[in-house]
């Protein structure tokens, strides 16, 4: 009597824009192909035999998806999946996932960056400096500023809220 052996599928995982995100490790049998960036004209060539595609911003159109007969899963390493033709994926029974909290840290950092830009009047001061006639004559523009921006030495900053963004904590100053 012969033994029955189950064939284990080896996945071909293709990441099309790896420079944008850290790619996780995989515990399934696989071959992994990583591209830092993929121009639109190379997308099909790189994914046509893939079983799993990892993208962040690359568009996967119905035309590309229809030419990937082995494709089973698309992982979008970002908050949305508007760059994926979901109807085409449903038609071919391809699962699609995203990472809803993937940009929470960047959003929190951006909020602090906007705070400092407003507090330090970065845009206003830059424009005043560009228009300054005082700079060529005196190598200074201090006369243009009625009040220099205040420092943040005594400010307390934080992001308070619920969900992925509110749970993030950024330590900007060690105390």
* Distance linking N and C termini: 73 Å
Q: What is the annotated CATH architecture of the largest domain?
A: 3-Layer(aba) Sandwich
Average of per-residue pLDDT values = 83
What portion of the residues fall into strands of 2 or more residues?
Answer: 5-15%
Look at the helices and sheets and give the structural class: alpha/beta
CATH class of the largest domain: Alpha Beta
Number of strands: 5
Domain unit count: 2
Poorly predicted runs of 5 or more residues: 168-175
What composes the largest sheet?
Answer: 5 strands, parallel
- The radius of gyration over CA amounts to 25 Å
Number of helices: 7
**Which term fits the overall shape?**
elongated
CATH topology of the largest domain: Rossmann fold
> Would you identify the CATH H-level superfamily of the largest domain?
NAD(P)-binding Rossmann-like Domain
Instruction: Name the strands of the widest sheet in spatial order.
Output: 2-1-3-4-5
Write down the secondary-structure element order: EEHEHEHEHHHH
What share of the residues lie within helices? Answer: 25-40%
Task: Explain briefly what this protein structure is.
The chain is α/β, with parallel strands linked by helices and 175 residues long. The protein is built from 7 helices and 5 strands.
If you had to describe this structure to a student in words, what would you say it looks like?
The protein is α/β, with parallel strands linked by helices. It folds into two domains: 11-97, NAD(P)-binding Rossmann-like Domain (Rossmann fold, 3-Layer(aba) Sandwich), CATH 3.40.50.720; 104-166, no CATH class. The protein has seven helices and five strands, in the order E-E-H-E-H-E-H-E-H-H-H-H. It has a five-stranded parallel β-sheet with strand order 2-1-3-4-5. Helix 3 links the parallel strand 4 and strand 5. The radius of gyration is 25 Å and the shape is elongated.
């Amino acid at each position: 009597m012969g033994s029955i052996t189950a064939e284990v599928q080896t996945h071909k995982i293709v990441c099309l824009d790896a420079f944008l995100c850290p790619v996780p490790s995989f515990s399934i049998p696989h071959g992994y192909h990583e591209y830092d960036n993929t121009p639109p004209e190379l997308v099909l060539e790189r994914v046509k035999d893939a079983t799993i595609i990892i993208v962040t911003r690359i568009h996967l159109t119905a035309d590309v998806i229809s030419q990937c007969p082995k494709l089973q899963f698309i992982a979008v390493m970002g908050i949305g999946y508007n760059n994926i033709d979901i109807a085409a994926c449903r038609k071919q029974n391809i699962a699609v996932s995203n990472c809803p909290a993937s940009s929470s840290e960047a959003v929190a950092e951006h909020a602090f960056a906007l705070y400092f830009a407003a507090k330090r009047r970065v845009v206003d001061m830059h424009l005043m400096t560009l228009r300054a006639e005082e700079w060529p004559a005196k190598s200074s523009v201090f006369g243009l500023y009625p009040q220099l921006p205040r420092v943040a030495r005594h400010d307390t900053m934080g992001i308070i809220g619920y969900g992925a963004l509110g749970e993030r904590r950024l330590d900007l100053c060690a105390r």
